[in-house]
Write the structure tokens for this entry.
Amino acid sequence: MNIPFLDLKAQYEAIKEEIISVTMEVYQSQSFILGPKVEELEKKVATYTQAKHAVGVSSGTDALLISLMSADIGPGDLVITSPYTFFSTAGSITRVGAIPVFVDIAPLTYNIDPEKLEKKVSTMEAKERSRLKAILPVHLFGQCADMENITAIAKSLGILIIEDAAQAIGAEYKFSDGSLKRAGSMGNYGCFSFYPSKNLGSFGDGGMVTTNDEEILQKLKIMRVHGAQPKYYHKVIGGNFRLDALQAAILLVKFNYLEEWTEKRRQNARIYRELFARKCIEGVELPLESKERHIYNQFVIKIDQKRDELKRYLINQGIGCDIYYPVPLHIQECFRYLGYSPGDCPVAEEAAAKTLALPIYAELRYEQIEYIVEKIGSFLRDKKTS
Ligand SMILES: *Cc1c(COP(=O)(O)O)cnc(C)c1O
């Protein structure tokens, strides 16, 4: 059986007519930069994420960058983030001249560990703490970070929260007072990506920043067009962070299916859990699903040993799978100057060595999931006896 890691062609086949017709509309208009399609998408994403406002930008990376820029975070400032994430989370912090402070993740949620975060903040010297400008939590794989603690810490320090919600559109978090909030609506900024492999993916690059703050909204809109207001009068130094009309038009079509696709991903996760349990497969740790809504951008398992061998084996059996992420950020070559060493974030390092992402997309069929679980089972049984 051949099971791709992500089957975007199957998704396209199902919505092809609609996509072609909407792109033709944009071709006819010959209006490609921002405009009504982008505005319509901004409204939809704001409503969906339960944030007051949304600003379409050129990518998820640029969503992070423009947020940091508009928060006036720059040289000498410190921003706390996770070492276990896509590169651009920390890359963006350094691109504005600030310094990422890595706090290790919690096992199984793969999100920043609230206890370690508290410890890090409480053991910082006053001078260092005064340079701390923001916490940048990542809602990794589609599950929200522990926002209760993060919010409390940010409040007590009077610093900002910039959510990296690139993998978490529609994910929910439940606070202890019972309130349920969506990714991107809890911090000062919410950063989304429409990279093709995200739950809502464009035909290229795209992103969005959400905020509940009217002042931030205005600043983001100016920053997005080189800091100009009006055109050619530059108040601040911004950049070209604009979202294309073509991408917005395609995303508007896909947006109508997002909830259905997300529910199918969640259903597939349930099927994996059932099958792993029913087939009594030992040595596989499944992702922790907390009471909140996980949107499963990735379904990531952890195995005790021989992860790389399992990956090769599955690929030989026709099963697509991938590693997110093989090297945690604190020990990336480009961040050597920050002074971290292996062992500084042990949980992230273990996750990098032992996790594997399995297919989870909406079009995946029951028999395919069954085949994947069976193959993992037979690999692990062979390892045990050999
Ligand atoms: C995809 C992703 C980004 C970057 O988004 P792009 O649109 O590819 O620039 C940032 N952070 C995380 C966690 C991501 O998964």
Observations:
- The chain has two domains: 8-103+110-255, 258-385.
- The first strand starts at residue 53 and ends at 57.
